[in-house]
Amino acid sequence: GDRVWGWPGHVIDIIAVFATLFGLTTSLGLGAQQATSGLHYVFNVPDSLNTQILVIAGVTSIALISVIRGIDGGVKVLSNVNMTFAFLLLLFVFLAGPTLQILKDTWNGFSTYVMDIVPLSNPIGREDDSFRESWTSFYWAWWISWSPFVGMFIARVSRGRSVREFITCVMLIPTLVGVFWMATFGGTAISQVANLGTESGVYQNVIENYNDSLAMFAMFGDMPLTMITSTLGIILVLVFFITSSDSGSLVIDTITAGGKTEAPTAQRVFWATIEGIVAIVLLIGGGLTALQAMVNATGIIFTVVLLFLCWAILQGLRTEPR
Q1: Of 308, 303, 312, nearest to 23 (Cα)?
Q2: Do the record's keywords include Cell membrane (predicted)?
Q3: How many CA atoms lie less than 13 Å away from 229 in the CB half-sphere?
Q4: pLDDT grade, residue 2 (50/70/90)?
Q5: Whose CA is closest to 152, among 289, 23, 57, 8?
Q6: pLDDT in tens, 78-121
Q7: What is the pTM of this model?
Q8: Could you tell me which of 183, 160, 179 has the C-alpha nearest to residue 171?
Q9: Which residues contact 193 (CB under 8 A, 6 or more apart)?
Q10: Which of 1, 78, 167, 285 is the 20 to 30 Å CA partner of 52?
Q11: 116-126 pLDDT, tens digit each
Q12: Does pLDDT of 288 surpass 70?
């Protein structure tokens, strides 16, 4: 109710800002690592911290331009271009890879996920504690830290839509696309390892040398048009994080401006710049470990807020007239 305009609301806003900031900087840091690995794999660019810093600086610079231009002139244009490239890359891998196996993997993966999501969410009696603590908890905290800015941004661009349209277009369709994407890329990589064994790029770079950031590029290395697909993959990684950075900056700007959607441009530039600086500082200070620690801290705190939001939306739907 009206208490959101008092100190409880201010506390929630502060938590949301920090959760969004560290969620985005974690993504930016991991994206820089993957892009740098791709540049090294394809163009022999040094895979170093300095290169990662340059990548973050480049992403932040383009995000600044997009933020200044606003949603229609910046975010929307980049998002449309990115989704076109992503669709073309997905279509290529689907057709050039083991197509029938990908279709089977899509169905098997989706059905297994639906059946096992509840038991796999239960931490009691599990023997894989180290994996759950180091990765599962990190991913959940990471996703939750994205929820303030993703929720507010989607709400802003979905104004006028019905609840049914919102659920279909925001929850169901992206989930199905995500399942198909994972099955296509993951299924192709697994098929390469199964057929080529130790000669496959995925085995040599990911399984043998534990370089996860090279997985996609190693997979492209055993497919036709390697240079084109790898270059497109690098562009996609960068532009995905550019669109995340600029949309996240717009949302943080809205929160800190008290809900105003047209805050001063200098304020938007400030938050976009801060994201890049924090990502660089975390990479220099501790790399992946530092990124995980910060997103865990902010994501876990915002989980409490998220639980109250779940209750609030149920109450809102019950009282909303049909």
Answers
A1: 303
A2: yes
A3: 21
A4: low
A5: 23
A6: 888 888 999 999 999 999 999 999 999 899 988 988 888 887 77
A7: 0.83
A8: 179
A9: 200, 202, 203, 207
A10: 78
A11: 888 777 777 77
A12: no
Cα 285 from Cα 311, distance rounded (Å): 38
For 278, the token pair is 């924090």
Query: CA 322 to CA 320: how far, in whole Å?
Result: 6
Tokens of 226: 């390697």
Question: How many Å apart are CA 274 and CA 9, to the nearest integer?
Answer: 23
Quick one: tokens of 187? 């299924």
**260 contacts 152 by C-beta, under 8 angstroms:** no
The DSSP 8-state label assigned to residue 73 in this structure reads I
The domain locations on the chain are 2-319
The rounded distance, in Å, linking the Cα atoms of 75 and 67 is 7
Q: Which two tokens stand for residue 193?
A: 């390892």
Q: At 139, list the tokens.
A: 């991913």
Token pair in block for residue 88: 């073309």
